[in-house]
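As a representative case, the lines below give one protein's residues and fold tokens.
***
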Amino acid sequence: MNKRGNVSVRIGILGGAALLFLAAIVVFITQQVGKQAVDAESEPQLNAQQGTRVGLLEAYQTWSNGSAIFLDLRPHSAFARTHIPGAISIPEEELENLYLDLPNDLTIIAYCDCPLENSSAQAALFLRSHGFPNVTALRGGIEGWIQSGYPIEP
């Protein structure tokens, strides 16, 4: 084999090795992202600023067996268009005046339509600080609930 042939073979081997290395990196990153998504869905996270979040599947199971109250923090007009069946509508701006109407001996799952559940997380923190020990925010909010194919009204 001449020098050109040897160089071509070496370049081909190095190129193949580089592609394998890149493929391994892609697989590793994909697995890590997938693992984080599974962990985020299966384990509620507690953060002093964000509060506890419950995953959609766990919330659906809780809704199915009737062991929680769902608190819709969106404006009444949004609630009228669509909501989780059986949910109570108390818009975020009215919560401070109406929270005493909620039972503090039941689990409350608050939801909103914020992409990061900011309103529901803040409401959960507010309610916990006012004597409601079992309050959490719905991860994914109403949009996540709908995208998961779970029941909605009307």
Notes: The chain has a mean pLDDT of 80. The first helix runs from residue 3 to 42.
